[in-house]
Design goal:
The chain has 255 residues and is an alpha/beta fold. It has two domains: 86 residues, ACT domain (Alpha-Beta Plaits, 2-Layer Sandwich), CATH 3.30.70; 109 residues, 3 Solenoid (Pectate Lyase C-like). It contains four helices and 15 strands.
């Protein structure tokens, strides 16, 4: 037989579990001068790329590449804050690094995981029980659509969604999306898809001749010419995993 017990609850607060979306910085080198240069190259012309995103600093790659390297944590945190990142936690460092991080107010997060973007779930033909209706689902942001040609010096960023461009992306122009990029015209400028690490993002163009293409940080510049099979033709760019890490693959499209 169940017994109900009288209890008191605080009138001014409650404690609940919460999930916080985090950006992860996988640090591969303790050379902060080089890190600063590469941050400037990647984000220097995108001052609003980060919006005070909460950040976990992952030091596991550093332990593999430079296990005995010293790290100026205060300088690292200062650099990240310049780009509107908010370091909150750290994982994977040695004892000295973790002590520095703790002294700066960062929280050890050994259980934090950094995940590759999950692929679409497989479709099963087996009968399954009907799911319960979700409570107040959040609407999914539609693609950002650009109808006009983009000239040199212009930049468009589709934060948290796909980008569709209906006109030419000229040399010197830059299109960026957290999801896919579709260019229904010649792509002659820079295209950066999966800008926040979505390795499943792709780039599509009716005429592929870019200055730079990048997916989830893996990039290729026009200094390495595209094969004749795809140069100036309809093509898609995707990431393919391999034993030496992800690499860009460019496939022709039949249109």
């Amino acid at each position: 037989m169940s017994v109900a017990l009288a209890a008191n609850a605080p009138a001014t607060f409650e404690i609940k579990s919460a999930n916080l979306p985090l950006v992860a910085l996988l640090l591969k080198s303790a050379d902060l001068a080089r890190l600063s240069t590469e941050f400037a190259q990647r984000f220097g012309d995108m001052p609003d790329f980060f919006d005070h995103d909460a950040l976990v600093i992952d030091l596991f790659p550093l332990q593999v590449a430079e296990p005995d390297a010293g790290l100026d944590f205060a300088a690292l945190v200062h650099l990240l804050r310049q780009y509107r990142l908010t370091p909150l936690a750290v994982r994977g460092g040695n004892e000295a690094q973790m002590a520095q991080a703790k002294a700066l107010g960062l929280v050890p997060a050994p259980d934090a995981t950094v995940q590759r973007a999950a692929p679409a779930p497989a479709i099963s033909t087996a009968a399954a029980p009907a799911p319960e209706p979700a409570a107040s689902p959040q609407p999914v942001a539609g693609a950002l659509v650009i109808d006009k040609p983009l000239r040199s010096g212009q930049q468009v960023y589709a934060r948290g969604r796909d980008l569709v461009v209906m006109a030419m992306v000229n040399p010197g122009a830059e299109v960026i999306a957290d999801g896919h990029i579709h260019v229904y015209a010649p792509l002659r400028g820079k295209a950066i898809a999966g800008a926040r690490g979505n390795a499943d993002a792709r780039i599509f163009a009716l005429s592929m001749a870019p200055e730079l293409i990048s997916i989830a940080g893996i990039y290729r510049t026009s200094e390495v010419a595209l094969p004749d099979a795809v140069l100036g033709k309809a093509a898609q760019v995707r990431l393919a995993p391999g034993p030496d890490g992800d690499k860009l693959v460019i496939d022709p499209l039949s249109v």
